[in-house]
Amino acid sequence: MHELSLATSLVEQITVIMGNEGASTLHSITLSVGRFSGVEKEPFEFAFPLAAEGTPAENTRLIIEVTEMKVKCKACGKETVHDIPLAKCGKCGSLDVEIVSGREFKIKSMEVE
Ligand SMILES: [Zn+2]
Questions:
Q1: Distance between Cα 79 and ligand 1 center (Å)
Q2: Is the pLDDT of residue 1 over 90?
Q3: What is the pTM assigned to this prediction?
Q4: 110 Cα–ligand 1 center, Å
Q5: How close is the Cα of 69 to the center of ligand 1, in Å?
Q6: In terms of Cα–Cα distance, which of 12, 95, 99 is closest to 56?
Q7: Using an 8 Å Cβ cutoff, are 10 and 48 in contact?
Q8: Looking at the domain 2-112, which fold is it?
Q9: 2-16: per-residue pLDDT in tens?
Q10: I need a surface site. Which of 6, 27, 34, 67 has the fewest CB within 10 A?
């Protein structure tokens, strides 16, 4: 299961961050997950508690924020949102774009103690 290995590596990251901060309890964690990151929200929500069992991330509130596919055009400067994973400006059609969101899988914030 793809989500379980992702959850396991996320828990490892969390453990390292908490160790660095000297924190022992993780109250909540917010993830920023792109709509086209390849990570499915529901399976991930199911996998996370399994991966977190016996770690400081156990019993944590997991919040997943799904982001839209958004690109910023370097030619015309406009930001456009797509329904498909398209790295192209929706305004002028330029392919010289920067992907703002939609493909990421990252920790947005953590509430620790
Ligand atoms: Zn453009």
A1: 8
A2: no
A3: 0.88
A4: 35
A5: 15
A6: 12
A7: yes
A8: hypothetical protein PF0899 fold (3.30.2320)
A9: 899 999 999 999 999
A10: 27
